[in-house]
Amino acid sequence: MLKGKKIVIGVTGSIAAYKIPFLVRILVKEEAQVRVIMTPAATAFVTPLTLSTLSRATVIVDPFKETTGEWNNHVELGSWADLMLFAPVTANTLGKMANGIADNFLVTAYLSAKCPVFIAPAMDLDMYNHPSTQKNIQVLRSYGNTIIEPQVGELASGLSGPGRMEEPENIMDHIRFFFDHKLQFSGNKILVTAGPTREAIDPVRYIGNRSSGLMGISIAEEASRRGAKVTLICGPGHIRSENSSIKKLYVESAAEMYKACRTSFSSADIVIMAAAVADYTPEQVSTGKIKKGTPKLTLNLVKTTDILEELGKLKKKDQVVVGFALESGNGIVNATAKLKNKNLDLIVLNSLDDKGAGFDVTTNKITIIGRSGILHAGELKDKREVAGDILDTVKNLLDGRKAVRSKKS
Ligand code: CTP
Predict the structure, then answer these.
(1) Which domains does the chain have, with CATH numbers?
(2) Which residues have any ligand 1 atom within 6 Å of their CB?
(3) pTM listed for this prediction
(4) Position in ligand 1 atom list of the atom nearest CA 193
């Protein structure tokens, strides 16, 4: 399955480096082409000779070739690779990668990567939990890199906690999954909406909701990783996607989101409407700041356009439209009604009854309903994984349609 895949492995100075020869051996056995780069500190833990023997290629440590004075070409390696895996990555190298401090070959190669990048941190638990490390991980994730989370367990210091590099077999699962799904949506244009909307009351006040935008952004980023051309229409949530391959349009109100969706809808094959759009907006926006005075203030609200319903009316036969339903009771019945009323292909149900699911949390628990009933009933998971489940279900739907078409012809 990995035959001919070009994989660069970057090793840094952590004791977990001793596991990398096993990883390289498995990759080469699966016929991947592997090039290893190391930081000088990594060579204290595993020798370049071991890794060059196993990878059947020269291992690069220094920017310059000692004998000839020529430089090793990091740009070439950055364009050559289908995937770069940095494992193990110390707190020090995480900091350099997050801040572009290119003082060794490994970081220059990272900065030159034209392919997806996986990063598997490994360090002591206190270093891992330190706010600076967590911030660097966050930054690297926001640049579109995939972080392979360390495991909780016994550490080289004798302490126990998070920081153990993921086992080579599990890293292999990430790599295999990546190459399996990489091209899943290539050629597809996916429109995703995310975040809340804000409905202005006056120049300083608005009606909003608690949506952070994380669910929609996770879907957009996962779709982009799987090869789709993604447009993300984003309301003013507190999270932003830094993924530069995603086209981003920022909007404020339900009316602006509607306009942006109408413009992008006809060219999209798949639309996933994860935004928490306001159902009502003030009938009139005060031009000046409303002064306090009367003991009671009444705001007249009028219905916004139901964007999803309008898109459902415009939907062409080949398009897939996915909605979300946030329910606090009778979830399946209400979500199924929305699926039918809004002419959707799939609806993703969140229940407010599930702890840890829904707004302003990093996890979600979803049920996906299609025209034939429940297609997926998920556990409580990280929203990034939930995004993968939603896209897998969309992919199954597309494959099903394709099979029907080829049967007919
Ligand atoms: N939605 C939309 N435009 C609106 C309101 C909602 O496009 N003005 C979309 C949401 O993005 C979501 C779906 O409709 O994908 C369902 O939203 P939800 O708030 O669960 O349901 P509503 O249809 O608004 O109905 P209710 O609030 O009464 O449950």
Answers:
(1) 6-181 (3.40.50.1950), 189-404 (3.40.50.10300)
(2) 254, 273, 275, 277, 279, 304, 306-308, 323-326, 338
(3) 0.78
(4) 11
